[in-house]
Amino acid sequence: MALTTRGGGGADQAQPPPAPDASLGFLTKRDTEVKLPRATREPEIRPPKQKITDVHELADYRLRERKRFEDLIRRVRWNVSAWVKYAKWEEGQKDFARARSVFERALDVAHRDHTLWLKYAEFEMRNRYVNHARNVWDRAVSLLPRIDQLWYKYIHMEELLGAIANARQVFERWMSWRPDTAGWNSYIKFELRYGEVERARAIYERFVAEHPRPDTFIRFAKFEMKRGEVERARHVYERAGDLLVDDEDAEEYLQFEIDEAEFDRARELYERLLDRTKHLKLSLKGDSDYFRTNAAELKEERAMLLEEWLKKELSFGDLGDVTLVQKKAPRKVKRKRPLPSDDGSILRMPFTQFFILGENNLR
To answer: Where are the alpha helices (DSSP H) in 194-262?
Structure first.
């Protein structure tokens, strides 16, 4: 039997690698990795939880943690969250004096950060140190009186404690700083929660004096209407005067008089609104372009106002008087304006002009 021998006579001679299968395309190393299911992966190794069994171990643990926190705030002294975490850790150890000390140290660094004051006061409240909390709130609002949240939180704490007189005193301190409308409205709602209508009315008087705006007067008038004080509400609207006439909120005033069937008063208000459209406001610019633009706007506004008035008179039924409105409607007159042509002759171009009876200022 004939035997064949391998070249070189060596049985262990290396063979050339097989040619890659062209059908597999180009595979990267990542494509050929074997991925094990999640369940077969080795679990993540975590350090075991430390169990403290005696006071010596507890003291060592606290010493290490305090050193860690002190190193942290030494590196990031201006980071308020680092201070808060430190204080919360001390609170968790029931060492409230140390926690308070951490907050005070933090205030030496960032006393303008109102969130730090909030965290400090909440810590005192959470652990029922009421007088300490009052002290924190008092310092906070004295230093940062323009931060409304501090006032709200301070007042809320006093309300929770049932110290209504104290809450009222805090509100008065806040109002002395002349806050925006939200602060005044919260004070009024506070008094109404306890049935102090007269106090609320007095605050409204101060409110409209501090913020003489159409929306504040309307809110005051609606407050009176809600309590059936029609004459008081009318007096508030009348005090608003030109503020409402010069504002789109005049509709509130008109509707109030119509609801009370005071049609003559409503007509007087319409007359005042119409009177506003007679005067061109040229205080910003004096050029003729602005004059023409403003005049056109006032004419359109007058026409819309007359249309609305006419609808109201029709809705009054037998008590309505549409002739009052019709007399004030502008009349359309066709005229011709002379215009020079290129050859020097004069052309007369037709145009339409509106006239208001007895008034020539909107020509």
So the answer is: 197-210, 214-226, 230-240, 242-245, 250-259
